[in-house]
């Protein structure tokens, strides 16, 4: 049995997993039937840490973990139905969690997860990305409503456990980079502009994780970054709650008084600073920039600025990582959707064109969301129209305006697909499906002997946990006069432009004309090369359910899980040994066929997934000329990949010119819109869905749900 060390200790009651009872103090014994006990203890984190280790070297791997949602009131063998939330009643809730239900995580699952990581992964990763939500949902409001004190207490427990897991006798051995989740605050979703008490509290809770020189930024707005590889790579913890469409405490990212506006100004300056230092950046946050034809998670002006910023700093940003949605998938941002009218205060127009995405999606809603993504991917250009060997030819011929352009090239934004941006969204620990963690591999060619984070932190005479940087080490850059784009300066004819309603839109500089593609687009040092997805099969580990005969896919908002109508086969839990196993690895996956995690590789994968939608439209029109993947094999279809514009990418001049007009939707013959059809399933699409739900659904269940 694992105990939390630190300001708080958490133990499982003996009845929770059928272990011999431990002696409890009187205050705890009074609540011994609660399933889990929270005990107060002295601050002794450092006294129980691992032994000091030898000098570390880079491994080229890091851990992404998200959405732990620990629940101290969880009790095994209780009901998973709505209103019970694995707190009361009788039902199939397992010792390590109620998989495929909406119940939160027992502390036994959180303990076992971090203990397994400590035993199996800790020494082979270079840093940890922890994308928030370390408190339970407010799913039992009538009997046990959430309170701010409980949220803070739970986050202290989890922070202490992370310190224990990734430390030796001298302190942390690798950097851990946390971020705020929408359930880490009270009330959930709502975070007022900083500085405020919530941000000050988390500055204290995460004092071992936030660099000392970054704490003023976190106090002010909940954002900071860590140089996880000194002078080479920084991880930026974005406060996505200020972008979140459901945060009623803020408005947009356009008004200078809004924290979202200030956040992007801070990010712009820091990324420019990293560019000048020759460094790269990973962006991470809790709520992802998910956006479909009809729904979105971010407020539109924030999404617009984010997409614009990533395009302008595409030579700096290595990748973007998020959590929140609990499903394993990825999203592509299209720079063609950037509309400067939305984010320019002087020409501001209403940006409310999509509904807010449900905060807690059922499996049915998540499937509909993934279908919307697939429909959008069906319109992607085919990256395979360009073979890799043609990339060098494209470079040599770029200045030759007479050479014939390959069809589809401009649709991608050049040979590296720089029109698009990639966000990777990892599934969660909380067992809405199976608990899952991700190990991401990245290229360390030429960096094998680079000084690590712990080398920089543990310099002689300094606090081993908090290296005090010199003032000259960290200064905001002096920006060139042309760094900002003032779109309201005098026109050439001497007349003044339109009077702005606010400050001019500041568009960051793009990469140098001679700069090579960034690590998100072209394989190079720090490029993500692959990831391995691990999961814990709780149906097997809990050892309570004898057979799996399917279950309701969750039409309602609350999902009681596939096993809600079953009874445990033992009176007391008899779980098997807890362990994670590999679900899949992109390095040898025969279906995804991802040679790396560059944007172009994922555009290719998304295009293949989207061909199901293309096939359905072709079938509906009665086309006969199709290949085996369902793509019409005609010259007319290939012409759809022709570029409407001549330039390969969004040029700097395009941002300095007049505002982009709204594009009107294409009309079909007769003025009627076609009805979207799901079409036939293809292998890649079903494989994608299987992993989205962390292998908790069979192919038959997925087909039944979709069609």
CATH architectural name of the domain at 61-389 and 415-457 and 501-610: 4-Layer Sandwich
State the shape: globular
What is the CA–CA distance across the termini?
45 Å
As a percent range, the share of helical residues equals: 25-40%
- With helices defined by DSSP (H or I, 4 residues minimum), what is the helix count? 19
Q: Return residue spans where pLDDT drops below 50 for at least 5 consecutive residues.
A: 1-53, 461-500, 548-558, 615-679
CATH fold-level topology of the domain at 61-389 and 415-457 and 501-610: Purple Acid Phosphatase, chain A, domain 2
Number of strands: 18
Order of neighbouring strands in the sheet with most strands:
7-4-3-16-17-18
Question: What's the average pLDDT?
Answer: 78
- Summing up helix and strand content along with how strands pair, one would put the structural category as alpha/beta
What portion of residues belong to β-strands? 5-15%
The Cα radius of gyration reads 26 Å
Task: Tell me about the largest β-sheet.
Answer: 6 strands, mixed
The CATH class of the domain at 61-389 and 415-457 and 501-610 is Alpha Beta
List keywords for this structure.
707 residues; alpha/beta; Purple Acid Phosphatase, chain A, domain 2; six-stranded mixed beta sheet; disordered N terminus
């Amino acid at each position: 049995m694992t105990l939390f060390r630190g300001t708080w200790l958490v133990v499982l009651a003996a009845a929770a997993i059928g272990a011999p009872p431990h002696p409890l103090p009187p205050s705890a014994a009074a609540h011994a039937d609660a399933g889990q006990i929270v005990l107060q203890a002295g601050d002794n984190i450092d006294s129980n840490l691992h032994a000091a280790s030898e000098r570390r070297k880079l491994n080229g791997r890091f851990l992404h973990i998200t959405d732990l949602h620990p629940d101290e009131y969880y009790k095994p063998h209780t009901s998973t139905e709505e209103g019970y939330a694995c707190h009361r009643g009788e039902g199939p809730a397992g010792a390590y969690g109620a998989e495929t239900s909406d119940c939160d995580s027992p502390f036994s699952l959180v303990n076992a997860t971090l203990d397994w990581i400590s035993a199996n992964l800790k020494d082979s990763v270079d840093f940890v990305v922890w994308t928030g939500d370390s408190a339970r949902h407010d799913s039992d409001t009538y009997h046990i409503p959430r309170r701010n004190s409980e949220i803070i207490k739970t986050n202290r427990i989890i922070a202490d456990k992370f310190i224990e897991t990734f430390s030796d006798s001298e302190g942390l051995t690798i950097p851990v980079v946390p971020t705020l989740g929408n359930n880490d605050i009270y009330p959930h979703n709502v975070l007022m502009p900083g500085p405020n008490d919530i941000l000050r509290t988390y500055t204290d809770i995460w004092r071992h994780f936030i660099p000392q020189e970054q704490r003023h930024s976190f106090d002010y707005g909940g954002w900071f970054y860590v140089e996880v590889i000194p002078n080479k790579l920084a991880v930026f913890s974005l406060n996505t709650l200020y972008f979140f469409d459901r945060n009623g405490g803020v408005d947009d990212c356009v008004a200078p008084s809004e924290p979202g506006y200030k956040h992007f100004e801070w990010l712009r300056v820091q990324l420019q600073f990293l560019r000048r230092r020759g460094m790269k950046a990973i962006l991470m946050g809790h709520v992802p920039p998910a956006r479909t034809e009809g729904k979105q998670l971010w407020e539109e002006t924030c999404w617009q600025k984010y997409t614009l910023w990533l395009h302008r700093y595409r030579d700096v940003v290595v990748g973007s990582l998020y959590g929140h949605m609990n499903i394993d998938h990825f999203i592509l941002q299209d720079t063609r959707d950037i509309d400067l009218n939305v984010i320019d205060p002087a020409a501001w127009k209403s940006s409310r064109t999509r509904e807010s995405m449900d905060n807690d999606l059922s499996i049915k809603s998540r499937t509909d969301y993934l279908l919307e993504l697939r429909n959008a991917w069906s319109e992607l250009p085919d990256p395979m129209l360009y073979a890799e060997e043609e990339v060098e030819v494209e470079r040599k011929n770029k200045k030759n305006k007479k050479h014939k352009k390959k069809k589809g090239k401009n649709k991608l934004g050049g040979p590296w697909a720089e029109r698009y941006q990639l966000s990777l969204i990892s599934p969660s620990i909380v067992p809405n499906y199976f608990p899952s963690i991700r190990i991401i591999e990245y290229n360390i060619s030429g960096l094998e002997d680079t000084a690590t984070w712990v080398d920089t932190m543990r310099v002689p005479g300094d606090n081993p946990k908090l290296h005090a940087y010199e003032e000259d080490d960290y200064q905001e850059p002096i920006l060139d006069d042309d760094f900002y784009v003032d779109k309201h300066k005098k026109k050439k004819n001497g007349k003044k432009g339109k009077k702005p309603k606010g400050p001019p839109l500041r568009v960051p500089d793009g990469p140098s004309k001679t700069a090579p593609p960034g690590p998100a687009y072209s394989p190079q040092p720090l490029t993500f090369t692959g990831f391995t997805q691990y999961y814990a099969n709780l149906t097997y580990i809990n050892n309570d359910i004898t057979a799996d005969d399917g279950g309701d896919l969750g039409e309602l908002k609350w999902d009681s899980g596939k096993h809600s109508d079953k009874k445990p086969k033992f009176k007391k839990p008899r779980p098997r040994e807890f362990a994670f196993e590999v679900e899949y690895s992109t390095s040898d996956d025969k279906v995804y066929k991802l040679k790396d995690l560059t944007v172009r590789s994922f555009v290719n994968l998304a295009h293949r997934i989207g061909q199901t939608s293309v096939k359905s439209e072709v079938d509906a029109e009665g086309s006969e000329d199709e290949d085996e993947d369902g793509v019409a094999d005609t010259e007319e279809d290939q012409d759809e990949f022709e570029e409407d514009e001549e330039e390969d990418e969004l040029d700097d001049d395009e941002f300095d010119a007049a505002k982009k007009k709204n594009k009107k939707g294409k009309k079909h013959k007769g003025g009627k819109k076609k009805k979207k059809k799901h079409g036939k399933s293809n292998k890649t699409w079903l494989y994608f869905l299987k992993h989205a739900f962390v292998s908790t659904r069979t192919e038959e269940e997925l087909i039944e749900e979709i069609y």
